[in-house]
TrEMBL record:
Pfam families: DUF4336. Coiled coil: none annotated. InterPro entries: DUF4336 (IPR025638), RibonucZ/Hydroxyglut_hydro (IPR036866). This is DUF4336 domain-containing protein. The lineage of its organism: Eukaryota, Fungi, Dikarya, Ascomycota, Pezizomycotina.
Length: 269
């Protein structure tokens, strides 16, 4: 399955970009769901104030990525933001074995069923046993919310010093322009991609409806509680795994996409 999703030549098509100089770097790659829908993928590296690195939703560990990591610091944390964003956990952990690996409940079992490399999880986010601390340095710079009501068991982080929300599938920002910028392909071409785009852009009501009637339908109240907590954080930038980075004004866009859930949370409070 993964061979149909990820590019065979990641070094040639990956965009490595400093979002915040010396602090946040993104690794953007083309990613085609079912081999046809241009979703795009993205890993994010955050340099903490003590010089250690936190990696979220790692993508292919190319020589260029290794060089960038070496320039930034020491990898201390590697996080799969949900049960779908784990394909490259094995190579990253092999390269940086001293890093703590974080992920959602159910992921170890899923990886085992897919014959993925065994990875020791230092922290598994669970509804029944919430993760309240990673370590003092990480806790000082990040706040997080586990969203078990999300179909993919999403974990969302806010890097407080840069007011940057880092997430995987909680919210998309179609089209995936940057992620396809080195492929020679249009990020919006194809009928399925266009339909998908109607449900994942942030300009209309499509994504709002897709999340309300689809993603959150099995536990809309629980999803709304999580969204309300996230909305209380102080963030401006949003780095999604799929679609372009929202460089500023992200909180307002988040509130628009999640409007119905925020209203539900308010009614139930």
């Amino acid at each position: 399955m993964s061979s149909k999703l990820v590019p065979s030549n990641p070094a040639e098509v990956m965009v490595i970009r400093d979002i915040v100089p010396r602090t946040i770097t993104t690794l953007s790659v083309p990613f085609a769901r079912f081999g046809r829908i241009k979703v795009g993928g993205r890993g994010t590296i955050v340099r903490l104030q003590n010089g250690s690195l936190a990696v979220f939703s790692p993508v292919a560990l190319t020589d260029e990525v290794k060089q960038k990591v070496a320039e930034m610091g020491e990898v201390k944390y590697i996080t799969a933001l949900d049960i779908e964003h784990h394909i490259f956990l094995g190579p990253w952990h092999a390269a940086y074995p001293n890093a703590q690996v974080l992920g959602p409940e159910g992921l170890p079992e899923k990886r085992k069923s897919q014959n993925k490399e065994a990875v020791p999880f230092a922290h598994l986010f669970s509804k029944d046993k919430p993760v309240t601390s990673i370590d003092p340095d990480f806790d000082r710079e990040f706040e997080w919310e586990y969203v078990p009501a999300h179909t993919n068991k999403e974990i969302v982080f806010n890097h407080k010093p840069t007011r940057t929300l880092i997430e995987a599938d909680l919210m998309f920002n179609y089209p995936s322009t940057e992620q396809y910028s080195k492929t020679g392909l249009s990020a919006t071409s194809g009928v399925l991609t266009k339909i998908f785009g109607m449900l994942t852009n942030t300009s209309g009501k499509g994504q709002q409806r897709a999340i309300w009637y689809g993603i959150s339908s099995r536990d809309r109240a629980g999803f709304s509680r999580s969204v309300s907590k996230i909305h209380q954080w102080d963030f401006d930038r949003i780095i999604p795994c799929h679609g372009d980075v929202l460089e500023s004004g992200g909180k307002g866009i988040f509130a628009k996409v999640m409007e119905w859930h925020l209203e539900l949370a308010k009614k139930r409070s």
